Amino acid sequence: MCSSDLLAGLLVLGVVPGTLAPASAARCTAPGVKTATRQATAVFIGTVESASTNPSSSGSGATEITHSVRVSGVWKGGTRISSDDVEVVTTSNTRRGCPLGKLPEGSRYVFFARADGDGWRVARDDGTAPATAALTDRRSEEHTSELQSPMYL
């Protein structure tokens, strides 16, 4: 099999060369902070403490991962976050959307979340990402009055 046949096979399978990730992952683009904040029910920073995996209840074959997250700051939706421990659900093994998969325990993330029952649901294309200085620094050019300094819990 020549390399062009292998490349064609990977593309047919939906794999982007060099990543071994589904081609849909290449289409996952997070919005800017202003847009992500406007679209989210809540925006908060927290540390992943644990995760458990369950088959999706939708029958899609996707896997849902429920993460226990310790919230340390809230930018938006503070009245809806009644505890500093919240559940955040991500998905993996799905052909639709932009799943985040299982988040590493001990990692800090900024969550741009949608309410989902008593917990929160997030995806890569809603802006949820590791809590880097560039994302959390309120002086960043992209941050406006919509995303002020967080209220720390």
Structure description:
The protein is mostly beta strands and 153 residues long. The chain has helices spanning 3-13, 33-39, 133-136; strands at residues 15-16, 21-22, 42-55, 63-76, 85-92, 108-116, 119-121, 129-130, 151-152. The chain is globular. Residues 1-25 and 139-149 have low confidence and may be disordered.
Name some characteristics of this structure.
3 helices, globular, 153 residues, 9 strands
Number of distinct helices = 3
Helix/strand order: HEEHEEEEEEHE
Q: Spatial order of the strands in the main sheet?
A: 3-4-5-7-6
Q: What's the main sheet like? A: 5 strands, mixed, barrel
Structural class by helix and strand composition: mainly beta
How many beta strands in the DSSP annotation?
A: 9
Estimated helix fraction: 10-25%
Mean pLDDT: 74
Instruction: List segments where confidence is low: pLDDT < 50 over at least 5 consecutive residues.
Output: 1-25, 139-149
Shape verdict: globular
**Terminal Cα span:** 58 Å
Topology overview:
Elements: H1 3-13, E1 15-16, E2 21-22, H2 33-39, E3 42-55, E4 63-76, E5 85-92, E6 108-116, E7 119-121, E8 129-130, H3 133-136, E9 151-152
Parallel strand pairs: 5-7
Antiparallel strand pairs: 1-2, 3-4, 3-6, 4-5, 4-9, 6-7, 6-8
Could you provide a short overview of the structure?
The protein is built from three helices and nine strands. The protein is mainly beta and 153 residues long.
